[in-house]
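Sharing a chain and its predicted structure for anyone who wants a worked example. Both blocks are below, sequence first, tokens second.
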Amino acid sequence: MKQLRTIVVGLGRIGWPFHVPEVAAHDGFDLVGVVDPLPERRKEALERFDAPGFPDLASSLEAASPDLVVIASPTPFHAEQAIASMEAGCDVFCDKPMAASLAEADQMVEAARRHKRKLMLYQPTRGLPDVLVLRRILDTGLIGPVYMIKNARTSYTRRNDWQALQQHGGGMLNNYGAHFIDVCLYVAASQATRVTCRLNTIASSGDADDVVKVLIETASGVLIDIDINMAAAHPIEPRWHVLGKHGSLIYQEGGWHARYFDPDALPGLDLSQAETLAADERRYGSGETIPWQEKVFAADEDKLNYYDYCHAYFAGDEEPFVSLDESRELMRVLDECRRDAASTSASG
């Protein structure tokens, strides 16, 4: 197996517990360095992973000569570090969100094309068991054509870290929105054509949004309804609700609960009486009983090993697990969310 000389930039909440151990444990990667401005973090990486530490990206690129740069730094640094890495001849695996703005994301895309480098985003929610099983269920056509996808993530959190501040690219639209808008579009398999968004700051100690409401209409006619609420004393449930023409799916207690019917088991309905405007026996509806069926699908399979997909893409000729077009589309939708929320706030 070809080994990729790899450095990880940022030893914080995602770099240290996930990216560094995954790179160190995978046979396809050689962890040749880590980057963090804090000396105690660099010392920790040297002691645990025998990985040389560097205070900045430039010194690591010069000394370690990496093939791949994994960017796990705070959002405001993503574009600058990705572009510098590609200019140095390295491929880039970047944590979400891609950048602080669509304009920065476009600069990253342009740099990848100009320098003929590979760039892929880390969108871990796509590889979680609930999503893997959901896509498999939908592929069977069990609930018919999907017309609505609802997703909710809630808690009550008085945030006081860097993501509580707008100046650092904070807020739950950037943080969780980059996960759940992406995965809903992934499940819908369709681009957004219209975006409506409301942002609010309720429980956070900073000025960045902690309550997010997003409605997305897709080209295929699916309506996506997303709640991200970090000021909710009671949860908004279920976490997932997927509605189709012949049934629906909800995610509860580690599994997908399906309620559906076989459309071939229903007789056709006579509409002729509707022309008379007189309801038969003064009934509401047809009076039929839908032969509902119930089934539970356990989401018990392992999540994807993201670094297997990274190696297949960066070291080989496989397609990326997350395409650059999909990543750019997500940034466009996030940008539309901010624009719509700002226009509503200004008009109100």
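Comments welcome. The first helix runs from residue 15 to 25.
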